């Protein structure tokens, strides 16, 4: 295995190695600056630039997670779908980066094995911060329901079947 590459100046992405691509999605304006800074600092030392996901994947992920969140909200509260926006920060609500990583794997792999999903109380939320609380702008329980369906009953996942994507076997190890 090649040694890790040096950090990219001005880039918050960890150095996995010069030929290891990094994929991210844009959910805040500041992320555009991250992409520009990382790619500008890596051109001389890295074969693989920082890449941004296709907006169609972003829309698919957003639709799936919102569907599962709405379904959970109605089932648990008995309230109308229209009340969901008031109960969540609808303007900032979006899927987690972990959910998108799983969707990318589903799209490009013949088999998907997922390790380490779920939350331990004293674990950090992200590798790059000391924050331990979950972010309110995600609905992790809705994502977990999606993961169960993806592994056990992929044919019931809404919007996914409309893509024509053949879902590979997906296994979660806890």
From TrEMBL:
Q: Give the record's GO CC terms.
A: Golgi membrane
Keyword Phosphoprotein: yes or no?
no
Q: What's one GO MF term for it?
A: sialyltransferase activity
Task: Just give the chief location class.
Answer: Golgi
* Pfam families (alphabetical): Glyco_transf_29
UniProt keywords, alphabetically: Glycoprotein, Glycosyltransferase, Golgi apparatus, Membrane, Signal-anchor, Transferase, Transmembrane, Transmembrane helix
Extract the InterPro entries matched here.
Answer: Glyco_trans_29 (IPR001675), GT29-like_sf (IPR038578)
- Respond yes or no to whether keyword Amino-acid biosynthesis is given for this record: no
Q: What's the superkingdom here? A: Eukaryota
- Name where it's found: Golgi apparatus membrane
Name the Gene3D superfamilies on file.
Glycosyl transferase family 29
Q: How does it sit in the membrane?
A: Single-pass type II membrane protein
Family, per entry: Belongs to the glycosyltransferase 29 family.
Q: Spell out the protein name for this chain.
A: Sialyltransferase-like protein 1
The lineage is: Eukaryota, Viridiplantae, Streptophyta, Embryophyta, Tracheophyta
């Amino acid at each position: 295995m090649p040694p890790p590459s040096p950090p990219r100046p001005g880039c918050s992405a960890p150095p996995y190695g010069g030929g290891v691509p990094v994929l991210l999605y844009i959910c805040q304006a500041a992320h555009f600056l991250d992409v520009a800074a990382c790619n500008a600092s890596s051109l001389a030392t890295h074969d693989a630039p920082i890449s941004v996901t296709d907006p169609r994947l972003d829309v698919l992920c957003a639709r799936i997670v919102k569907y599962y969140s709405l379904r959970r909200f109605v089932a648990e509260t008995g309230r109308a779908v229209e009340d969901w926006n008031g109960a969540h920060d609808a303007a900032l609500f979006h899927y987690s980066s972990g959910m998108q990583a799983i969707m990318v794997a589903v799209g490009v792999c013949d088999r998907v094995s997922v390790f380490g999903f779920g939350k331990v109380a004293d674990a950090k939320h992200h590798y790059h911060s000391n924050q331990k609380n979950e972010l309110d702008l995600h609905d992790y329980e809705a994502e977990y329901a999606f993961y169960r369906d993806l592994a056990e009953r992929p044919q019931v996942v809404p919007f996914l079947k409309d893509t024509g994507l053949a879902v590979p076997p997906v296994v979660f190890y806890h």
